[in-house]
Design goal:
This protein is mainly alpha-helical and 125 residues long. It is 79% helix and 0% strand. It starts with 7 loop residues before the first helix and ends with a helix.
Length: 125
């Protein structure tokens, strides 16, 4: 009698991935709540400056620990700069949504966005 179960190593990997996904979604919820809380006393621009400063310090520390430069040469590519501009506007709009709208609506929109992008790609590409 044969079974179609994957080897036990795959089950361990899947369990680890599930744990990481659940933890990351929990941390995203905590981050959204902290942004909402900070937005009650600070402006949207100030919230973004704080978030970006924390991100730059964190990612630069990781890059330096790994022996990489925090500002690689690829960053000067015009496509990377265009994507960075898109990230800036996306962050601005998302933080605005969290601060101005109920947290549940902003989180629902964030979770539905990948589905909408996939649908758009399936239709137009």
């Amino acid at each position: 009698m044969s079974t179609n179960l994957p080897p036990s190593g795959h089950l361990q990997s899947n369990a680890t991935a599930i744990i990481f996904m659940v933890a990351s979604m929990g941390l995203f919820a905590v981050e959204d709540a902290l942004i909402k809380l900070a937005g009650q006393t600070l402006g949207i621009g100030q919230c973004l400056v704080i978030l970006c400063t924390i991100g730059v310090i964190g990612f630069s520390s990781i890059a330096l620990r790994l022996g990489d430069s925090p500002w690689p040469k690829a960053w000067r590519n015009h496509w990377v700069l265009i994507r960075t501009a898109g990230e800036v506007f996306g962050s601005l709009f998302f933080v605005s949504a969290i601060v101005l709208a109920p947290l549940s609506i902003a989180s629902a929109i964030l979770q539905a966005t990948p589905l909408a992008v996939t649908l758009g790609a399936a239709i137009f590409l």
